[in-house]
What does this fold into?
Amino acid sequence: MLTGIIAVAIGLGVMVLVHEWGHFFIARLFGVRVEVFSIGFGPRLFGTRRGPTDYRLSALPLGGYVRMAGDNPAEERRGDADEFLSKPRWQRVLIALAGPTTNFLMAVVLTAALFMHGGEQPSYADKPVVVAGVVKDSPAQKAGIQPGDHIVSFGGVKDPTWDRVALELALSAPGHSEPVTIERDDRLITTSVESEPQPFAVVGYPAEPVMVGSVAHGLPAERAGLKEGDVIIAANGQHLTAPSQFSEIVQQSGGNPMSLDIQRNGQAQTLELRPTWGDPGDGTPRWQIGITFRFVTSPRRYSLPQAVSKATQFHIVLANKLIYLVGELFTGKVSLKQVQGPLGIVQESSRAAKRGFGDLVSLMALVSLNLAILNLLPIPILDGGHILMLGIESLLRRDLSLKIKERFVTVGMVFLLLVFLIVMYNDVLRLFPSR
It folds into this structure.
């Protein structure tokens, strides 16, 4: 938990600071007098004044804020040309848009850096979705997907790769129906499949050697002599095409003895073991032998133009998904129970930090994109609310009264507070699995 809190403080703080810098940069570009640019909130610790701006470090270093001259209609104004409210509405709209835009660009930069750094990824990830098998009672099986099927369209995306299907499902609401087009025996079959986060459950799994990644101490695999790097060729005489298939065979064993044909350093061997019933650590007891799988991987590294292009496309897809999900929330098709709040973010940050720097950077990019999209919602006190109000004033060709603006902001604050409390309540409930 402490690791998560530190990760959130750093990651979210940087993302909020980047957001405020976007407002600051465009405000100065249009000649708006910025009175304060603060790193952190609360009492001023120290800083320096350059021109009209006090660049300060404040006591609570969680993000920051920008205070522009004349940006509060409730305060007395002198009407100077360099005040925020003295600028044309189109300039004020661009200043409001600058924060979310900078967050989007930050997400692209972080992801592009990861693409340029490169790393290992499963070899099947960028290949066409050709199904080697389907999990029993999974959404794929219920949708009629069969081994040998080629998914030629998923969720409106033509000729998707396994990577793209995983991306489409990452932010898709569980239970949502995704349209699928299958090529089978030179025929096209259109169906739909119920969404969930695990791609192998939704569309089936790819052909992949069943390679042992690790062996747990004291469980049947270790006692039988199975070792890291072994390739399991067959189980109970049944040839294996993928790790998911082997997992199903273990569950179907019912704890009866199993015969495994393996290859070790090019040599064929046969081992005997009996699965045991237990919880492998995810809260779901089942038959297990005590191994994890290792996928065949290949290195992926991109040039700067390729990385920027790929990262931009990636975040455009994610942004579209986020906008769609927000719409589903407002129409009631997606429950607030599925939204992660502060505690959920802390937990995810802790897991990402433990997995490594790359995963933490990926999470920071996702948080930055979320800040961009959520700040554009037409809710008072958010950037989108300011833009909406400026749009209404443009249509009316006059400023709204101070009373209306105050009510507008009050409604927005109450709404956001209610959402925050509901999400926090759901976060707390998730800490107690029995509920």
In short: DSSP finds twelve helices and 16 strands in the chain. The first helix runs from residue 2 to 29. The longest strand covers residues 34-50. The two ends are 21 Å apart (CA to CA).
